[in-house]
Every structure is written in C-alpha cells, then in structure tokens.
C-alpha cells in the first residue's frame, strides 16, 4: 500500500501539523510507505493561469499540462490511498488546497475525457481516500448547523467522487479545547492507519 498525503497548512506550529506528525509516525510504525505533498512548503501555485483556463474552460486538451501539475499526477498514479489533511477555514479547505483541486483535476485527466480515446492518460480510481480536517467548533455544533454535511457533500461526493472507491471523512472538531479532544482525535488517526494497514497486503 502506497499512501499520498496532501497536506495544506502554512504553520508548523499548528494543531493540524501535530496531526500530520502523528499520522506520519503511525504510518512509519505500521511500515506503510507514504509520500507527502506539503502544499505550502512546496509553494504550490494556487491560481489557474490564463492558459490553464483556456484548457479547462474550452477542453483544449492540446494545451500542455504544467510540470508541477504533472508531478502531482504522477504521485496520484503511484498511490493506493490519498489522505487530504487540512484545517477548516470558513466552512471549507484553505485556498491552497482548493487550488490543488482546480489545477490537478485537469480536463482529460480527472474529468471530461472521451472514454473511447485510449491515448488519454486519465486518472485511475484510487482504492482509498481519507479526508481529515481540524475545526475549532465541536462536531455536534457543525452537525447541528449543517456545515459538517455541507463539507462532506463537497469533499466526499464531488472532489473525491467516483475517483475513489472507499471514502471516509473525519472532522477533528473542538480544537479550541485541544487537550480535551486530543485523545479522541488520536483514536481517529489510529483508525485510519489501521484501515490502511488491514488493506495493505493486497497492494504490496
């Protein structure tokens, strides 16, 4: 099992980065190989260029895909599992991660391809996809006001969609009281790693 972690947070002093550290440590302990796309550290370009818009907006697949996007495509193709880890900002992921989806989910690759055109290197269906997001508000409150459902609809049903076979979203809420929720969050991370570990033999 090969895992790709797509991490989106600008600060190594953040609680989200602590979760990343826990996740990496657990994967290491389980001897699961992983690759990290740390979008802020990479300086990943968020905004779509004019040429990219022309390609996406008018399905001009003859326009070449930029090198940084092709690099992410290669990571996806090498992965049996992708974990998206980020904080909830204004009821969604940071703009940096949204820009990753805007650019990496390119036409002819993640959508809009002609099924009869076998020359197109389209995105494979990734066996496992996990979304982990940290949130200041507790989960009960996010459920009550409908934000949790909205985030699941966007991430699980749209962004992951049919591109992933097994999908889970874990909202690590209540981070305004970190010490209170930290043990619960740790157990959720262990659940994810155990799911990956249990499934790893068929992908080795």
What can you tell me about this protein's structure?
- This protein has 204 residues and is α/β, with parallel strands linked by helices.
- It has a single domain, classed as Flavodoxin domain (Rossmann fold), CATH 3.40.50.
- It is built from 8 helices and 5 strands.
- It has helices spanning 15-29, 39-42, 50-57, 67-78, 95-104, 139-144, 147-160, 178-199; strands spanning 2-7, 33-38, 81-87, 126-134, 164-172.
- A 5-stranded parallel beta sheet has the order 2-1-3-4-5, with helices on both faces.
- Helix 1 runs parallel beside helix 8 (178-199).
- The N and C termini lie close together (6 Å).
- The model has no long low-confidence stretch (mean pLDDT 94).
Runs with pLDDT <50, length 5+? none
How helical, in percent, are the residues?
A: 40-55%
Largest sheet: 5 strands, parallel
**C-alpha termini separation:** 6 Å
Q: Strand fraction band?
A: 15-25%
Topology:
Blueprint: E1 2-7, H1 15-29, E2 33-38, H2 39-42, H3 50-57, H4 67-78, E3 81-87, H5 95-104, E4 126-134, H6 139-144, H7 147-160, E5 164-172, H8 178-199
């Amino acid at each position: 099992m090969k895992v790709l972690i797509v991490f989106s947070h600008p600060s190594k002093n953040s609680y989200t980065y602590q979760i990343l550290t826990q996740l990496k440590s657990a994967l290491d302990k389980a001897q699961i190989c992983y690759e990290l796309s740390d979008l802020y550290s990479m300086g990943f370009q968020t905004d779509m260029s004019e040429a990219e818009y022309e390609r996406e907006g008018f399905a001009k697949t003859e326009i070449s895909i930029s090198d940084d996007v092709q690099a992410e495509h290669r990571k996806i193709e090498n992965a049996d599992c992708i974990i998206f880890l980020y904080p909830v900002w204004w009821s969604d992921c940071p703009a940096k991660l949204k820009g990753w989806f805007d650019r990496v989910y390119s036409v002819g690759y993640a959508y809009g391809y002609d099924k009869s055109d076998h020359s197109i290197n389209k995105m494979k269906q990734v066996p496992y996809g996990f979304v982990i997001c940290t949130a200041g508000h507790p989960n009960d409150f996010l459920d009550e006001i409908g934000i949790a459902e909205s985030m699941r609809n966007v991430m699980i049903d749209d962004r992951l969609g049919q591109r992933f076979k097994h999908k889970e979203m874990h909202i690590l809420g209540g981070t305004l009281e970190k010490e209170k929720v930290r043990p619960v969050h740790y157990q959720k991370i262990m659940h994810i790693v155990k799911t990956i570990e249990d499934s790893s033999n068929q992908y080795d």
